[in-house]
Amino acid sequence: MTTAKYDYSTDEKRILFRLVETFQHLLEGQKLKGKIEKTLFGHYELEFPISHFLPNESENYTRVKDAFRALNEKKFEYEDEKCWEIIRIIEMPHLEYREKVKFTLNAKIVDCFLNYTKGYRKFELETVFSFRSVYSMRFYELLSGQKKPLTYTIENLKKMFVAEDKYPRNPDFVKRIIEPTKKELDKKSPYSFEYKINKKGPQFYSITFFPIAIPKNRNENLETHELQKQVNLSWNLDKIERDYFAKFGFTERQLKNNMQLILQAKKELDLVYELSLLIGAIRTKNNPQGYVIGVLKGKLKDKGIEILKK
Q1: Which of 186, 217, 248 finishes a domain?
Q2: pTM over 0.85
């Protein structure tokens, strides 16, 4: 989703970012601004107020209609060992002017968004909505939360941004896309970059991007949420998971001390299922909390997953 070759407008990207936000809220159990219902056929029907997709109330609603039309025309090619199919990003958009928009998402698109939003990076949607350039949005996706340098050939970047015909000369691509993007990110984004041009002979060949954090641009509300997550278990564990750990006798301090391991197990394992298997076993254990943590570590090691250290 971040490095694929595609040519979206800023309005199309804003719709997709709103979907990222929606599925973040869904995973965290927060109240949604619209509604999502799963159909008998396994697809998902979504409904939102049109204002949800507009940068401000004075925007022309025709822009939303045009963006949904364009997304409806775009598609992914999906293939696994069992099948091949073409999947439209958004299906059957229906606009009720100045009120709401309805549309359908294929289950595989929903899975994609859910997997995408489980990552460690947290999109600051209001920041993204303020970007005027779609290239700033693309680089925000690539760089948010990154710590290591990223290197792309200029030709690959052109393909990602569908800019081969716009800027055939590599120096023009740097001047017209890279430099203005960096300027906008420096001004508005908590993540930006420094960059280095790598040459092959006299020719511009690739660019190495060095991610940098700009704390003054960080969303204050998100900062508060991140701090809350460090002290509030409900941000990290849903009610079923918290109930299981309570049955095992975990105190809040014990959960917080082991939270990194628990979150790693939640990401890599079916945590609720694994905990359900331990209900009977802990009755004979002198230290049930230590036993549960040991089992989760063992399950991760069995899958060849390196256990993260604090």
Answers
A1: 217
A2: no
